[in-house]
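Quick start: read one record
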Amino acid sequence: MFTKKLLPILMLGIVSLNFTACSDSDEPKENEDPSVLIKGSGEKFKHRVAAEDFTGAWCVYCPRVSYAIDESEKVNGDKFVASGLHIGDLSASSQYHDPYNYSPVTALEKALKVTGYPTAYINRDKKWKGPENNNINYPLELYKTTSSVGIKVESTLGASSGTAKVSLKFGEDIKQQLKYVVYVQEDGLVYRQANGTSLYGNDTGKGRWEMNFVHNNVVRAGTEIMGTDIAKDKVTNSEINLDNLSFNYTSVDASKLEITVLVLDADGKVINARTVKGNSASDYEKM
């Protein structure tokens, strides 16, 4: 039976529940921005631009971009990374034969509306101005003195398979969904290259095969080429560790393998990039 004696006890319980609800830790803090997905650390990191070269061993004018990359790496090597995305037919009898064909490139070609070769994109944003060999410094138009995203890489790469651990650190608050792409690349691959330019000593005035052409930055394997979401719930102290990235690939010389990391914004444009020699460990490059 309800009595007046029980009323004070009941009222005290209701008041206690109200106070408990108001002090719930899930309530947003007074100065917290709800649009921030990842809280920044306040640090600044080294920035690099990324060039992705859509190329083929059969492509007579592709040496323009190969030359531009070689020269740009000499002059701007510390501000610039490159990836060679080969397109071609694996059949040796095909006129479009390219033993380094990387089939996932089709999705990126479609997204960037690549319609011919050679084509190179800087940061998946601007097409390298042609003729590329006369504009070797063009990638630096997108270079910045610092980046808000730091990249750390450690890898173990064998002849046909390997693993990489990539860590990313965020210096500024992130309010958009970022993505990452990781490539396994190989330098020093010697194979013929069609050459319809006057580069690489071709003074014949006509096209020819460069039989011992050295192909560098050749993408052998990679994560999702359009990017994999960076999960905000996996970020701790402004840092995320992407462990156990596993790759299967073909290589000629494992000592010439490298890891290239691209960090993309919500629009798919590269905001920072880094290439690190395979079978090594690198730390963040703080500025």
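The longest helix spans residues 7-22.
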